[in-house]
Amino acid sequence: MKTFTQFFIEIDQTSGNNEKIEALVQYFTITTKKDMVWAIALFSNKRPGRTISTSLLRQWASEKADLPLWLFEETYHIVGDLAETISLVLPEPKQSSDRSLSDWITHITSLKNASLEEKKAFVLHAWDSLSKNECFLFNKLSTDGFRMGVSSRLVIKALSKYTGLEENMITHRLMGNWNPETTKFEDLVLKSQLGESLSKPYPFYLAYALEKEVNELGDTDQWIAEWKWDGIRGQIIKRKNQLHLWSRGEELITEKFPEFSHLLSHDSTDFVIDGELVGFKNGNILSFNLLQTRIGRKNISKKILESCPVIMIAYDLLELNGMDMRPLSLLERRESLSILISNPVFNQIIVLSKSINFRSWENLEEMRLQSREQQAEGLMLKKKSSIYETGRKKGNWWKWKVDPLTIDAVMIYAQRGHGRRANLYTDFTFAIWNETGDLLPITKAYSGLSDLEFQEISTWVKKNTIERFGPVSKVTPILVFEIAFEGITFSNRHKSGMALRFPRIKRWRKDKTPLMADHLQTLHEMAKKI
Amino acid sequence: MNLLTFTDRGIYCSVADVYIDPWKPVKNAFITHAHSDHATSGHQSYVSTSTSVPIIRHRLNPQKITGVEYGETIHAKGVKISFHPAGHIIGSAQIRLEYKGEVWVVSGDYKLENDGISTPFEPVSCHHFITESTFGLPAFNWEDQFTVYNQINNWWKQNKEKGKTSLLSVYALGKAQRIIHHLDYSIGHVFTHGAIENINEVLRASGLPIQNTSRVMTIGNKQSFEGALILATPGSIQSSWSKRFKDVSVGAASGWMNIRGMKRRRGVDKGFILSDHADWKGLISAIKETGAENIYVTHGYADIFSKYLNEKGWNASVVNTQFSGDLSNDTEQ
User: Fold this and answer.
1) What is the 3-state secondary structure (H, E, C) of A276-319?
2) Global confidence as pTM
3) Low-confidence residues of chain A: pLDDT under 70
4) What is the ipTM of this complex?
5) Which residues on chain A are in Cβ contact (under 8 Å) with B262?
């Protein structure tokens, strides 16, 4: 673990991407191939399975540090990271250890069926033999959430530098379902495409939000406009009579959508389609909320299949009969896509995302305003000549979303944040006025303000706390914020009977008093319109 | 009635008619140390340690200020008042008040290590102890300070080898002089932001041995900063002032650097965990050494720290003051 820890310290101390890549290459050069596979896995959000519950870790850490549990918990809320809190409160280690990163991970994983005593003995021994930074990393490995300022993009750049292979090729090889416990570095990164898993998806091409005036895009003839559907972006892959469905988060979700299994009865044509999974019933697209509920379920019951049947709205064709279509133009790809899915087997399961006819940009702007009625989030603008690129790129594809809905609400609770927001109040609950003139909690929101504003609010919260419930501070209801959100759904779990979709803080309305905040009535009216 | 009460102007001794570190204008202000959250302007008369006098003069320009030596007793209407080293910064003191056999100590800010430049902390026996709690959480345990000085010097040396300038964020009064005292001057040249150099000049003029440092000039001839170490205040590093330095590595020396999230938020490349406040163990051992039964906890994690002290058998309570413990804006007024 010492090499990995040294590397972590270096990464942690630099904010420059080039320096991070240098550090990665340096680490790849000196570490073992086995550790390297694990390091790549950790940076691509693949983690060893959790074998020790965090509540046990909290308990053992407070015992070992001779602190009452409540004090440990309070400390955790301020430090904002469990692994770090443990490493900070524990006494100095008595010895040191030369175990490698992969060795520690293997040990942690092997505890799956161990008894409580065995787990505790292992953890206490580890804490006794690891330096503060090593201990922090060990705790990170034992819990979850391993972010250390290295994006998978940086890892790919570093691997490309280290191996001399092209970035795109490495991106593709790292995607999908490989297991760091059993995969060899040579097989993962160095081996050519032959014999590679049939399930492997392509990296998604992602668009940025349109940052200029739409008419600056030039000739309307060069562009295609489509609705930006509010569902789950996915890739459906049929190769050699195997079917796989991936979400954009690189999760394999084939089992959750049995609707698509009958595509296997299709002739021998193989394909990879990029599209949006949406709930669809009686000719209407269902709300995202229903789809989300369905995804949350472990078992897909008949009832769910009936209440929220899913289809894919197909945007793009990435592979056809083993041929990589991505270098072709969008127009050519859509043409092939449209021919492919005209086959009856796709009927009502995969439908083409229609391109919207528009005469002028002004005309399109009017149509964009109708997005919500269409259950869409806005429009996608794509250049007809665009190839299918890798990752988030500017220029050829743009998202053009509708403006969010907004309300003015009063802050009533505040809680400290995590990670970079440690010791700052950043998580707030907001309320609006109900019929009886009381403040009714309506939503939580965490993002949208600058560090400076969070700092100012934190100082304010400390001075204006009326009551504390564990980590939550109830504050004097004075501060008013404009909350932006994308939709409203009715929900029994919320006191207000409604839940806001994607709530975030748009701005701090220092010009408003609490009495000027919105009323429940306003939300009801908004909900009716959608 | 207690000898000391906590009012909206500051900590007050009604028998002697004396305020300690008041934040609103009063007649008699006794000042523990010259940081801006403890030494405020507008009082009719000031009393501080004689070492603090020139700093307070420089920062607040008071009409009337008296300096006393550590251990010297002032008699005020039957109350014996004396100043004792707090080890926090140069000239910092705990203020002891004794009346009819009852002893109170206002500790201001303090740390237990000898930093080589401030008069080291001395425990003072008392019945009532008023303590800060800036780092009153078990997550704060300081490493040996000489390890940290080595880290700073090594960082500077490595930056110099890469042709980089080292820009270190420190509080102008206290942390800056402590670090200057432990820098390895064989590495290169040391520059300071004006707010720090002003303090250095005041201290040198009063006979304190502060090594040579060069002021970063905002006008006049161009200075060469390559390979140098520049000490600057947290505010100036975030301002356009720091744009003049090319190819820099930015560091910060503060107890807050102990928390990764806060270090990341500051956006510095390198955080050095170095504080002029007592850490968790330091606070508890200081409290034990006073022998006091009654503990009043001020600025910091006061509610958490006092709850812990109560569990451990002290009679502890939280008192609200305007002290912040955060000196990001601590500059001359």
Assistant:
1) EEEEEECCEECCHHHHHHHHHCCCCCHHHHHHCCEEEEEEEEEE
2) 0.80
3) 145-146, 176, 192-197, 266, 530
4) 0.93
5) 422-423
